Amino acid sequence: MVDLVSEKACRKATTTLATCMKDISSMLLQMLEEEFNFLINKKDQMNIETKIRNIRFIGELCKFKIAPAGLIFSCLKACLDDFTHHNIDVACNLLETCGRFLYRSPETTVRMANMLEILMRLKNVKNLDPRHSTLVENAYYLCKPPERSARVSKVRPPLYQYIRKLLFSDLDKLSIEYVLRQLRKLPWNECDAYLLKCFMKIHRGKFGQINLIASLTSGLSRYHDEFAVAVVDEVLEEIRLGLELNDFGAQQRRIAHMRFLGELYNYELVDSSVVFETLYLILVFGHDTPEDLFADLRPSMIRYSLTEEVNAALVELEENERTGSINDKVNSEKHFDNEKPSGRSTFNASAANGKNNVNGNEENGGTHEDGGSDTDSGSGTIEQEGDEDELEEDNHDDGGDTDQDDDDDDDGPVSDEDDEVHVRQKVAEVDPVEAENFEQELRAVMQESMEQRRQELRGRPALNMVIPMSVFEGSTKDHHGRVGGESGDEAMDEDVGGRKEVQVKVLVKRGNKQQTKQMYIPKDCSLVQSTKQKEAAEFEEKQDIKRLVLEYNNREEEENNGLGAQTLNWMPSGSNRISSRGGMWEGSSSRGGGSRHRHQHHSGSGVYHGRRR
After folding, report:
1. How many C-beta atoms lie closer than 10 Å to residue 294's C-beta?
2. Is the per-residue pLDDT at 567 higher than 50?
């Protein structure tokens, strides 16, 4: 019956019928008790829903005083005696249903308190899983909540209560006009301060209503200018206070105030400069926690404690940057000056060559006057440039230090007429340990690369290249491209220049074109030996095949001709006859390319016997 009807319907029906039919309640309780005892004694971990439904039905009947308290305590005691698995769920559901009722009833409060204490002791003694532990705690505190003082509600005047009702309860998109009219009707001399306080408690309301509060502020600013100014000042003050405190618990409040400032800008109550100043304040406003940052990001960074040290470090940095820029400019000018002599030397070399050619032509009787004039000018240029190069080398050797001192004393820009300045850079010293480690790693990488390449070459399939027909022209070759007779001994035993070498042709492929190249390799090479062995094996195989074919043909001809000549070759017993079959072989074997004679001598009792293999 418990499975067919719902819990509340059964409870109402039982309670209603018990007033006029006394037997129904007793019969129903007996059936529920029998079902409870059957499920508890079965001790299986099945049908947990049936157990919970049964015990909750009994608990509901207890609250209507149909089921006696003794039945409830007996069911609870049965569960506590075997406080494991489903019994824990059944006991907790029974306490959640009628435990508070029995604990608050005067006649059962002591006994119920003892049962709750036993429940908590079992929970502490047994190693329950988190789900069961939570169920026990919820059932215990639902029956016996912890004692605490009553909350004292703040008493507000009716006017303040009405303002809170308008802002926190009635305000929405449809009623914003009504709320604005009601706020304008308020006595502002009495409630303007409390109204400003309520406007600043936007974090207490809904986050989606912040734009409505900003809209109310904009609507009220048309009639009360000082109110809008006070709201903006309070918002900026709250934002700065949140930055100074940096309390994680006030994150929701700080975010609401930032949203409120943005909405005030949308309703043109603040300028963009206020928004940008607030953003800049958020970015530059720091806290006294710089040591986690510098220690993690720049552990070797030099930190200065005095302002004078910082100023001195800045001056030194600027001086280094200025010196570096001057050195870069000097190096670029030096590079440009070095390029000029190279161009001049090239021109002078060509001019010198022209002079030599002209002199040679004059000695041979040539008449090139123009070339002679060019040669003279070129020779003068060579001498002049040579003198200049010598002067420059002397200046570099003698006045290098003086020029460097002048550059240090003079802070002005460097002109093209100043002497060159040589900047010597310190050669970085290489740690021998690091160099050795680098060499070892490089060798390991190279060895690994060679091993990989070797494996690739081993696993690479042979090229499937077709031998071109031009290789076979003009010589007798087999399908391997060897030159000579059948076995290729002529090519393999060929002596080249008195040395034991073998001439071979190699087939190579470049792009899409195949070519052959001749090579000479020693006769004792493994390639030659293996090739000889392979050719000998092939030649022997060919001879075997040829011999077998000839023997088969001979047998077939003997069998065919033996039957026809059997009568002609028959003789009486005791006589000898020599049968010559030469004429027959001459006629039948002409297809073989030569005359072959086969003589067979038969002796016996005059009977011819044909041989078969």
Report:
1. 11
2. no
